Amino acid sequence: MTIGVSKFSDFEGQDIFDMLIPHKKGQYALRAIYELAKRMGEGPIKISDIASAQAIPRRFLEVILNQLKGSGIVKSKRGFYGGYALAKPPDQVTVGDVFRFLQKDQNGSSCIACVAENACPFLEKCVFSSLWRDVKEAAFNIYDETTMQDLLDASEAAGAGVN
Fold first, then answer.
1. What domain count does the chain have?
2. Is 73 domain-assigned?
């Protein structure tokens, strides 16, 4: 589910709603990690298999997985029998781990609550900044408490053969 919102609030370089419902990159990264968690123990999984199973554009997935290699969440193996695998068990990888790693590349100097992308006129005096900080903290509390194993278990309990 996505929310059709234009640039509403900029929070540490990202739209405030991205913390709750991330853009495609975050969604695709999470889906890719989930697929690797589902296939844990099968050896390296080819990008084309992950892309097909999770409906992710292959070129975009290549970039995302290459970035995630630096996180310690995924590992790769080159060659004909190569591919990607989780570097840790699914119960040790949280949604928060994935999102934080992807956000580290973003500019954190933007105003927390301003619709202006740069040069906020209310910098350090904004009544809304604590609200958005609380929203981010609440969202990440949930993300940090949710592991890939939790998602696998929820999928199995729901009988979800999809994803």
1. 1
2. yes
Q: What is the DSSP letter of 74?
A: E
Strand segments, DSSP code E, in the chain are 10-11, 14-15, 74-77, 83-86
Residue 125 CA: distances (Å) to CA of 6, 7, 10, 121, 129: 24, 21, 16, 9, 8
Q: What distance in Å separates the CA atoms of residue 155 and residue 163, rounded to the nearest whole number? A: 9
Residues found in the chain: 163
Specify the CATH number for the domain of residue 56.
Answer: 1.10.10.10
For the stretch 79-96, pLDDT in tens is 999 999 999 999 999 999
Task: Give dist(CA 27, CA 93) in Å, integer.
Answer: 15
pLDDT at 156: 87
Rounded to whole angstroms, the Cα distance separating 141 from 10 reads: 20
Beta-carbon contacts of 43 under 8 Å, excluding residues fewer than 6 positions away, are 81, 83, 85
Owning domain of residue 46: 10-154
Could you tell me if residue 86 is inside a domain?
yes
